[in-house]
């Protein structure tokens, strides 16, 4: 069992503003959870607090129902995979992978068996005698993973481990890490700023902003039912159009729409995903400002009510002079202009 619980977790530096602000989160045994957010939101700091690399200002970290606030990092039975790989440049691949076991005084036979087994699983068998500088980025990442795996830890912490890889290799390594999680049956806590990684890898996604959890849910619920405007804009693309509600009606470029439920007369933001810009009955003609071709579809840039918008369209649905978008209330999200909260008609 390797459940991780964060209770009222706070981290501040020199008594100033909290970089982690009262976080409560329970991570189940064997769960793959992804912490996502923009730079400075606190996601990497949470990993360092769990691992013991930074001291907690207040609150508790529990692993297997035991408070570990005062437990040293080496005794928490956690493996940390860093963005920079953190390999020892003067050591061979074999010695890098074996280092943690040697520090724990594991016998040479057991070390050799574990390193050989993990190297085979990660396709590193032919690289065991090489130094890190002789490896590609993907190979170095495998070595960093291998070094963590041989220890058989309770929890894996991964801090943007794929950010230094090229696009194709990132896709490959995403799949390999997911397969690794399934094979090991261990708790993974994974940090990224990449929404694609979050959506494709996590059992649950935790969206952070300014040290606070904005939403923690499955990828499907995060994408389809964002709690607020920040989550809607960070996970997936979202067009935001400011409108004025009056008598449960509003207009976009002169075309009138009716809200799905009662909303008090006020300004709100309508949210529409780019792929939903052709899903309705209300047609609006717009002039493209720019068109990008991405494989089998085009991304069209234009304005609605003065707001910059994008739409995903087929190759034959776009002309240089005009494009027709088709909108429907059923595809819209409704966000309060002041609080940013998703108004209940989308969450009912």
Would you write up a description of this structure?
This protein is 24% helix and 33% strand. The strands form 6 sheets. Strands 6-7-8-3-9-10 form a 6-stranded mixed β-sheet, with helices on both faces. Strands 2-1-4-5 form a 4-stranded antiparallel β-sheet, covered by helices on one side. A hairpin with a 2-residue loop joins β4 and β5. The protein is globular, with a radius of gyration of 24 Å. It contains 8 helices and 20 strands. With 348 residues, it is α+β, with helices and mostly antiparallel strands. α2 crosses α3 and α2 runs parallel beside α4.
Q: What are the main properties of this structure?
A:
33% strand, 348 residues, 6-stranded mixed beta sheet, 4-stranded antiparallel beta sheet
Q: How many strands, which pairing sense, and closed or not: the largest β-sheet?
A: 6 strands, mixed
Alpha-beta classification: alpha+beta
% residues in beta strands: 25-35%
The end-to-end span amounts to: 36 Å
How would you summarize what this structure contains?
Helices cover 24% and strands 33% of the residues. It has helices spanning 43-51, 93-103, 108-121, 137-149, 167-184, 195-201, 219-224, 229-234, and strands at 4-12, 18-27, 32-36, 58-63, 66-67, 78-81, 155-159, 187-192, 204-209, 212-217, 239-244, 249-252, 255-258, 267-272, 282-286, 290-294, 297-304, 307-314, 323-327, 333-336.
List the helices and strands and how they pair.
Elements: E1 4-12, E2 18-27, E3 32-36, H1 43-51, E4 58-63, E5 66-67, E6 78-81, H2 93-103, H3 108-121, H4 137-149, E7 155-159, H5 167-184, E8 187-192, H6 195-201, E9 204-209, E10 212-217, H7 219-224, H8 229-234, E11 239-244, E12 249-252, E13 255-258, E14 267-272, E15 282-286, E16 290-294, E17 297-304, E18 307-314, E19 323-327, E20 333-336
Parallel strand pairs: 3-8, 3-9, 6-7, 7-8
Antiparallel strand pairs: 1-2, 1-4, 4-5, 9-10, 11-14, 12-13, 14-20, 15-19, 16-17, 17-18
Helix pairs in contact: 2-3, 2-4
